[in-house]
Amino acid sequence: MNDALNQLQPYPFEKLRKLLAGAEHSGGLRHIALSIGEPKHASPEFVAQALRDNLAQMAVYPTTAGLPALREAIAGWCERRFGVAPGLLDPARHVLPVNGTREALFSFVQTVVQRGRDGLVVSPNPFYQIYEGAALLAGAEPYYLPCLASHGFNPDFDAVPAEIWQRCQVLFLCSPGNPTGALVPLATLKKLIALADEHGFIIASDECYSELYFDEASPPPGLLTACAELGRDDFKRCVVFHSLSKRSNLPGLRSGFVAGDADILKGYLLYRTYHGCAMPVQTQLASIAAWNDEQHVRENRDLYRAKFDAVLDIFSPVLDVQRPDGSFYLWPNVGGDDAQFCRELFQQQHVTVVPGSYLSRDVQGVNPGAGRVRMALVASLAECVEGAQRIRAFVS
């Protein structure tokens, strides 16, 4: 067995199950889960129809590079969404379809990390657990940058020592962040690109929540936006990860893409060819339909906006919580022991949330998630409102 498997920590939901074991709720309330970030809104019917219309493609072996039409649809969406000049993002060189961002984030690190180089994979803390597991199984060391309220829940990149940047092989960003919902500012993205040039690391920007925001007039920028404004036509050292899971309520379709530096994607395509993870043709054709439509995405944002408005109105008198820049999470400060808060909330109100300390790592005796919990507003408006009312009663 790979010895690195012994370094993997239990997944947060495994820890949550153990925490709640034996914590029976006896009050007769139905269970409301605000723990797992799985979209619950209806999937677009036109995407489902495209999938049904192409089921005969199950008889065809898909190629790892994907259909040219899918890569073209993705490149066109990136141009419209992030201000990339038409033609700069070559569908054949700068875009690669993947089976959702989770598998892509993991396999990408296996491709680009140079083993035996005392390398670091740098990530925000708290973070999506795949970043850590990918680093360990690639033979690299994870290095965590705390995301604290005092710095807008973003890492203080200016405080990172030069020797860390010199050892860094991959810098993970998550914008808007999981679980904080914080957006990495455009000026910071440009500064990080300059650091990547200086020290030779790759920026891997996880932007799977990028389409969940509140102001229709101001879509949040991404790493491709920074490249476009810098005139970085080759997207050197920059790679972005996007998915239909949150944007289009299609978590079960397992469809996303990686885009950016053509030289990096050339090696990543080679890895994926051996890895054997081509997207089924019928899924690709359904994905084209999704990437080419924005109306359902705007309607999806409307649903989340209504839930945030209602829930924050309920919480404001009793909880230290702010509206995030994006995503579907709340990251309230509950004070004290976040694990105890979650266990007692489950016992008394039959509502499940995730301890913030389970999503973070202790660094020098400090866990930046301690005292906070993550709430995923993925259920219906009625369920989210009822859950918020129960949480308010519990806190009060």
SSE layout:
Layout (H helix, E strand, L loop, with lengths): L11 H9 L11 E2 L11 H9 L14 H15 L12 E4 L2 H12 L7 E6 L3 H9 L3 E6 L15 H6 E7 L11 H14 L2 E5 L16 H8 L7 E6 H4 L8 E5 L1 H14 L5 H11 L3 H21 L13 E2 L7 H12 L1 E2 L1 E2 L17 E4 L4 H15 L1
Parallel strand pairs: 1-10, 3-4, 3-5, 5-6, 6-7
Antiparallel strand pairs: 2-8, 7-8, 9-12, 11-12
Helix pairs in contact: 2-11, 3-11, 4-5, 4-10, 7-8, 12-14
Properties at a glance:
396 residues; alpha/beta; Aspartate Aminotransferase, domain 2; three-stranded antiparallel beta sheet; 14 helices; globular
Strand content: 5-15%
User: What CATH architecture of the largest domain do you see?
Assistant: 3-Layer(aba) Sandwich
Low-pLDDT residue intervals, each spanning 5 or more residues: none
Numbering strands along the chain, what is their spatial order in the largest sheet? 2-8-7-6-5-3-4
What oligomeric assembly is this protein in?
Answer: single chain
What does the largest sheet look like? 7 strands, mixed
Please, how many helices? Answer: 14
Detailed description of the structure:
By secondary structure, this protein is an alpha/beta fold. It folds into 2 domains: 3-42 and 296-395, Aspartate Aminotransferase, domain 1; 56-292, 3-Layer(aba) Sandwich (Aspartate Aminotransferase, domain 2), CATH 3.40.640.10. It has helices at residues 12-20, 45-53, 68-82, 101-112, 129-137, 162-167, 186-199, 223-230, 244-247, 262-275, 281-291, 295-315, 338-349, 381-395; strands spanning 32-33, 95-98, 120-125, 141-146, 168-174, 202-206, 238-243, 256-260, 329-330, 351-352, 354-355, 373-376. Strands 2-8-7-6-5-3-4 form a 7-stranded mixed β-sheet, with helices on both faces. The chain has a 3-stranded antiparallel β-sheet with strand order 9-12-11. Strand 3, helix 5 (129-137) and strand 4 form a beta-alpha-beta unit. Helix 4 crosses helix 10, helix 7 (186-199) crosses helix 8 (223-230) and helix 12 (295-315) packs parallel to helix 14. The relative contact order is 0.18. The model has no long low-confidence stretch (mean pLDDT 97).
